[in-house]
Amino acid sequence: MAINTEKVQSQAAELSSQLWSIANDLRGGMDANEFRNYILGTIFYRYLSERTELYMQDILKDDNLTYEEAFANADFKPIVEKWSLEHLGYIIRPENLFRELNRKVIKPTGDGDKFSVEDYERAVNELTGSTLGHKSEAAFSGLFDDMRLQDTRLGDTVSERTDKIGKVIAKIGEIDMDLQDQEFDVLGTAYMILIGLFQSGAGKKGGEFFTPVGPSTLCATLASLGLDEAKTVGDCTCGSGSMLLDVRKHLTTGRVGHYYGQENNPTTFNLARMNMLMHGVDYQNFSLYKGDTLTNDMYGDELKLTVQVCNPPYSLKWDAKAELTDDPRYSGVDKLAPKSHADFAFVQHMVYHMDEADGRVAVLLPHGVLFRGGAEEDIRKWLISSVNRLDAVIGLPANLFHGTSIPVVILVLKTKRNGNSGNILFIDASKDYKPGKVQNELSDENIQKIIDAYKKRENIDKYAYVADIQSEIIDKNGYNLNIPRYINTAEEEEEIDIEQIKADLVEIQKEKEKALDKVTKSMELLGL
User: Fold this and answer.
1) Of 7, 131, 246, 294, which has the highest C-beta tally within 10 A?
2) What integer is the mean pLDDT of 394-418?
3) Residue 56: CB partners within 8 Å, gap ≥ 6?
4) Which residues pair with 390 in a beta bridge?
């Protein structure tokens, strides 16, 4: 799908700036990580509200009824409620629509019509309550838990909290948010940028919740090359869900059967579900789970995925208990990933869940996984010799992520190696980037260069090398995958002509003596 990257980024940056300004109305007893929840939660509520209105306009147009009229009609009310639950997964009553709440904030018709934060709290509770006992309950349960509208840090009194939240609603009501606009994804892009912005403001580690656009696009593209559609797509550390959503942009048809993800942080888990819904993914087409992927595989033993993308927290410390060697994900290797570096544990998890017919993985990891010894060397041996899933190793530039300057590597894994089972492709793209004020970026040209090299799978001087697994990776390098062992990027030094340098020095000395003789004669003439 063609995407005007520059236009999207420009519009998203402008919207992000506008949303950030709203945060100033919430400053006080809260840090950025907390007041972010009110802003993003309200954006999401507005989205769900306007989605309800568009749907109701469509299904009621032949009856010449407004949503308000249908809901007030005893015969129509149960019907529109049923339709809303089946199609949208939730119900927002007409009086709880965002535009009604916003109208009460900016233009009340009388004292009894003024907005109260308690109105908003009731509206949110009724929305989530409408899903209880229905198929959509898992998708909506607890989504607004982080938007604590009675938190005294918003204000000690209902009046103070009403004033603060009312300002947020009014400002979000001013944002151009046309759901029928083909450029609507700009809002989704800005939504993800805000997640990264606010998480950074809260001092979170870079890459933990939000993967920058460049690396995310690259991973999604590499993992989906040649696919028209994907039956299943997964991300075992899905964060805000940005990479999961990126995959469909790089499928020929843009069709994904079902999304799967797991996230350990409860706040970010909620954001990922919101992000799915805001990007038009039906509540029945995604299953996101909250929990620790490494110790509690909530996918279950049977799930196999067509495409997997992942940007796990780098060199995470984990509880590598001995009993985990019985976990089918790790049982192929006698050793677990070291307690100080869980990187390969995530890789083993993904390999276990790869579709045997045509499974693909693109995962971002620190360079240490390529050459560290001990258990990680054993896992590399298993990955290369036992299951033969490693297809490519791609080195990226430093300083691409929020809060960390380390260079990272992408490992591309495939179950169907298409005639390449005897080799592994190495790409050194560490010098190709667009310098940024805060962090470096991958431009469209940088990404395309990597994709082209991956597709061609040919040796390119100082950039790409196809290494034979047996003779080079195993025999010569002992399963060490450090990229400089395979690609020499050093520039050749110009040959030095010693004799010419000697002759030049003699000439320089002669010129020096001539100049000195001239200065001496001039000083004698002056009597000095």
Assistant:
1) 294
2) 91
3) 67, 70, 80, 84
4) 413
